[in-house]
Amino acid sequence: LSSHSRAATFVKGPFLHSVTKTSIRISWEADVSTSGRIDYGTNADYGSEASSPESKKHHEVLLEGLRPDTIYRYKVTAGDAVSDDASFRTAVKAGTRFKFTVYGDTQALNAYHKKVVAMSHRLEPDFYMVLGDLVSEGDAEDQWQKWFDTEQIQLRMTPFFPVKGNHDGTGEVLQRYFPMMRKWLNYSFQYGNAHFVNVTVHRRGIRDPELNDKLKNQADAWLEADLATARANREIDWIFVMRHQPYLTSSAFVEWPAAFDKYHVDFVLSGDKHYYLRGVPVANGNVNPDGTVCITSGTASKHADLKITDQEFFDTYVDRNNGLPAADRVFYHCSYFEVEGKEVRFRDYDSESGKVYDWFRVLKDDDEKVVVRENSVVRPRAREDSR
After folding, report:
1. 359 contacts 346 by C-beta, under 8 angstroms
2. How far apart are CA 165 and CA 245, in angstroms?
């Protein structure tokens, strides 16, 4: 490795992203330009290495030829700096149990952000997602640095998949650090027997009208093609769509794509609104037991009051003043999914107490029909109340 006039220090990372069954990307950023190396293997002796020989601050290294569902240990050397030993798990094969966490809108409230990260880390997910608005000001480097510092406990051990929010600016920072965002900010990936689709249509901060139009048109066409391919894949039992803006708000459907019903999207995960909300399964604008469940998990930092104008479409909601529990004034969530074959189990946690405030279980048969749908709801629907 090249020598330097002063010792290098890790500024960001090492952090994990873009995991598959046989590969993963490991990135880091140092405070001075340096070459780098990753030592990795299935035990403490490592045994394999991958180099990044160019002298620069930001490095991104792809490890390939890995074994599926295998725990690897690794360390990064950047100039004079050597990271602590850490580990990662490659993606599982279809049908193998896996778990992941999601939360949204971490923004700039660092004290609360830390509690949500700690809760997620305790749940030991195989990967995790932040549903947009990672920072409050997308051009503020100090906020991105604080975000990386707070998330580092997870980033070095757990592969990360981002969603762009309106506060994240043009998305240039996300594209710099996370390669899956570099093609018009949209991407999809398979993990186990589930397909995950990130849709970026929130274009605030992008001032070029032509780019805005390209993003919108490309997202519509790409989403249709991507969902069609996923549903044709016999390994895929579950489809999750992530978008910062909810498709179903507390009062209305917003830009609901026909492709969701056509290809039977199982779950839509969103942030943006600073509350927790879970909808009933819907299809073609109506309550349908085989439909899509929308979850808004935007409570990793700020909170907003929530008014439900049409309770027919919603099962559970929590904010700082209303809903469940009514007495809580400060409430920071972390949502957790466990996927095992034809079954999905979900829990939503209070990040400070660890208490579970919402849960559900969904089970499909071999024909992809929902045969079990259990959840925590005890409140009757509005339509039932009016009879």
Report:
1. yes
2. 8
Residues 187, 266, 100, 94, Cα dihedral to 10°: -80
Q: Is 97 exposed, middle or buried (0-12, 13-18, 19+ CB in 10 A)?
A: middle
Give me the sign of the Cα torsion angle 241, 247, 250, 252: negative
Instruction: Give every CB contact of residue 305 below 8 A, 6+ residues apart in sequence.
Output: 319, 320, 321, 322
- What tokens does 51 get? 């180099």
pLDDT digit string, tens, across residues 214-260: 666 777 888 999 999 999 999 999 999 999 999 988 777 888 999 99
From the list 198, 165, 157, the residue with the least C-alpha distance to 180 is: 198
3-state secondary structure of 46: coil
Select from 114, 167, 116 the least CA-distant residue to 331: 116
Task: Please state, in angstroms and rounded to a whole number, the distance separating the CA atoms of residues 121 and 128.
Answer: 9
Q: Give the tokens for residue 159.
A: 């592969």
CA-closest candidate to residue 304, choices 265, 352, 249: 249
Q: Which of 358, 376, 277, 274 is nearest to 317 (CA)?
A: 277
Give the pLDDT band (50/70/90) at residue 208.
low
- Taking phi over 0 as left and psi of -120 to 50 as alpha, with beta for the rest, 320 belongs to alpha
Phi-psi category of residue 46: left, alpha or beta, with phi > 0 → left and psi -120 to 50 → alpha: left
Peptide bond into 125 cis (omega under 30): no
- Read off the amino acid at residue 97: R
pTM for this one?
A: 0.91
**DSSP classification of residue 126:** S
Q: Where are the alpha helices (DSSP H) in the chain?
A: 110-122, 141-155, 172-177, 209-232, 258-262, 382-385
Q: Which helix (H) or strand (E) holds 71?
A: strand 71-78
**Burial (Cβ within 10 Å: 0-12, 13-18, ≥19) of residue 163:** buried
Span of 43-57, 111-125, 306-320 with lowest mean pLDDT: 306-320
CB 148 within 8 A of CB 126: no
Paired strand residues for 336: 101, 347
